[in-house]
């Protein structure tokens, strides 16, 4: 698993939301009995489009040739990095790399996102350079970078259960799949939305996270209903309202442990406003805006498209926290014994 997460760390920020382009007129949008645009359904966020635009890419919009070239590089990376697993092979040596999942199991997308008919080079549309406007990028991402280094090297401080990242403990999904700011990841980029007149429910397959958002008649009423700042649930405290055919939700009070590991870190004063607009039978235009003076010099925005997945949805089962915890902590106890002059490995 360490090999997979080392590679997925590269793609956590490099995976956002896929689309096919082409919007339907308002009368063609599926609606509920009360006339609301209906978001109910199963959706996917698979794409190769990164959240941030690399400095080498000055433009937001790609040509088809440019997008195909970039997608080909990513596909080649997976093809070269995939190692077949021999179930009869002995355990790998400590210094060897067992590799990640075979490429069959990963599904980050097969192309770059099309949003509003444009092939996008990044999810971020504001600021114009496509970069997150951190006040201090190093300070805001210190835990993200430490976790990435641990995945890449297989070495870290795993003395206690709490030392393991949240995703390794199977508490919330990795890669910001659940939001706020729902980004795609290495695989299982699937959501199920269930809409009623009073609530919007969003099941995130990675790792069975659930966002249940109460719906209020106005933005003012919704914002007034935020829970006290001392209550910081996983995925934050979200409230929603409708603006025409767009469902809008604002999230505050994200759990500090989640925020520290998130691709979109927030302080206690941070807010993320997400917008979902049904633009066709198989598409939702998805936007979010991040405001947090503690981390960022200005508000910033991203745009993607959620699409209806093809084929069946397969359950994501997170077992690291179920089965691997004993081995991880057992290794930590062995390391302590060795440091104290105890037995060497294998003795």
Describe the 3D structure.
By secondary structure, the protein is an alpha+beta fold. It has helices at 2-12, 64-81, 137-140, 142-153, 219-224, 256-261, 320-339, and strands at residues 41-44, 61-62, 114-115, 118-120, 124-126, 190-195, 199-204, 209-216, 237-243, 246-252, 271-280, 283-291, 300-307. A hairpin with a 4-residue loop joins strand 7 and strand 8 (209-216). Helix 1 runs antiparallel to helix 4. The longest helix is centred in the last third of the chain and has 20 residues, at 320-339. Residues 1-21 have low confidence and may be disordered.
Task: Tag the structure with descriptive keywords.
ten-stranded mixed sheet, 7 helices, three-stranded antiparallel sheet, disordered N terminus, 347 residues, 13 strands, alpha+beta, single chain
Q: What's the topology here?
A:
Elements: H1 2-12, E1 41-44, E2 61-62, H2 64-81, E3 114-115, E4 118-120, E5 124-126, H3 137-140, H4 142-153, E6 190-195, E7 199-204, E8 209-216, H5 219-224, E9 237-243, E10 246-252, H6 256-261, E11 271-280, E12 283-291, E13 300-307, H7 320-339
Parallel strand pairs: 8-9
Antiparallel strand pairs: 1-6, 2-4, 3-4, 5-13, 6-7, 7-8, 9-10, 10-11, 11-12, 12-13
